[in-house]
What does this fold into?
Amino acid sequence: MKIIAINGSPRKKENTATMCNKFLEGARSASSDVETEIINLFDLNYKGCISCFGCKRKEGNTYGKCIVKDELQPVLEKVSTADGVVFGSPIYFGDITGQLRSFFERLLFPFSTYEEGYKKIAPKKMPTAMIYTMNVTEDLMKKFGYDMRLSNMESLIANIFRKPEIIYAFNTYQFSDYNKYKIEIFSEKVKAEHKRIQFPIDCQNAFEAGKRMVIQI
It folds into this structure.
């Protein structure tokens, strides 16, 4: 049983990556048969979909497969054959990072065909989850419409695989030293206290979600 975490953050040890690893830790705690791996997208050199339509060709054996040869290709193959996947991203301008968006273009488009009814041809209907970390509060997320914007990609994932479970971390602590930056709209003291009290809860939520994914497989 293989569960993969896709870290769409440029940071490997901060909020998003920490929650992705907690998710995988929870999955491993649920069964000794679970193998896990975290993949950091910012380590890879790749682009989004280039509209070559190789995944839609009738001839050959490329139908339903991204044919672009780069560092993302082996990752797409891993994810396509996994038993479960969690995708993690900090929120930039109310949406996922560009790297994760490009990853989704390459992962999802080959499985969404132009056949009658837009037939979906993913190898399996595996369980999925989304981890979002953001520096705004939950109230501001809803006020700014982040949740509605994010739901578009969630719907695409649900159509290809299964509806993702959503795990949030709000009002995140962003800097190792707030004194080095011009940050007038945030209080470092408030952020630090929120991190001390709430972030362990957020991590536990990710841990429990990882356990639940194993049950779904």
The mean pLDDT is 96. The longest helix spans residues 199-216. The domain at 2-216 is CATH 3.40.50.360 (Rossmann fold). Residues 94 and 146 are 5 Å apart (CA to CA).
